[in-house]
Specification:
about 210 residues; mainly beta; 1 helix; about 10% helix; elongated
């Protein structure tokens, strides 16, 4: 009796596997890798369309990779979306039965400047002239008052700098750290997608 049950179970497994293989041979898929201009590539929504109708959906993993399977042969379009990034589309992707079409890794989603916050600043020396090559640090001020450094850069030839941030409400501290002089800081409140401007004036070097 046990042998008969085992045999029946084995036959069911074979039938299911054969069904999956047959289905795989009659359908195809799309795979690829999405790169982003800023932030992690995970969490990009991948929407597969047949004409204007959505037929499948996936999300990129931590490496920006995705796979959509079980698509009937035909021509498809794919739309890529993630908050803070521009929308990407690829049209006329031909899917053939039994094959997975690779889109490669050439798709790069750039920053959607209308949905992020910018902190733009300028640094001036004691004579109110632009101060190039000054180290600038960006830190987030947490609710408990602690300060966490999250980014840094150097002012350009006209003493300017810019940071791109998520539009979520937060408080940031911008600090200019000139060589041989006292650091200068200012706090900035970010409460949405907008441009926030700050000017930092360096203090004279005291001997």
């Amino acid at each position: 009796m046990k042998q008969i049950r085992s045999l029946l179970f084995f036959l069911v497994v074979i039938m299911l596997a054969s069904s999956v293989l047959a289905q795989n041979r009659s359908t195809g898929g799309i795979k690829g890798k999405v790169r982003v201009e800023t932030g992690p590539p995970a969490g990009v929504a991948v929407v597969v369309r047949l004409g204007e109708r959505e037929v499948a959906r996936a999300v990129t993993d931590k490496n920006g990779e995705f796979l959509v399977s079980r698509l009937a042969p035909g021509l498809y379009g794919v739309t890529f979306r993630k908050p803070g990034l521009s929308v990407g589309t690829i049209e006329n992707i031909e899917i053939k039965a039994g094959k997975t079409r690779s889109l490669g890794d050439h798709l790069v989603l750039s920053i959607d400047e209308g949905s992020i916050a910018f902190i733009r600043g300028s640094v001036f020396n004691k004579d109110d002239r632009s101060a190039p090559n000054i180290r600038i640090e960006l830190a987030r001020i947490e609710q408990d008052g602690t300060v966490k450094k999250i980014d840094g850069r150097v002012t350009n030839e006209i003493g300017s700098f810019v940071f791109r941030l998520a539009p979520d409400p937060a408080r940031y501290r911008i600090t200019a750290k000139p060589n041989g002089a006292e650091p200068v800081s200012k706090d900035v409140e970010v409460d949405g997608a907008a441009v926030y401007r700050v000017a930092l004036s360096l203090k004279p070097v005291t001997k």
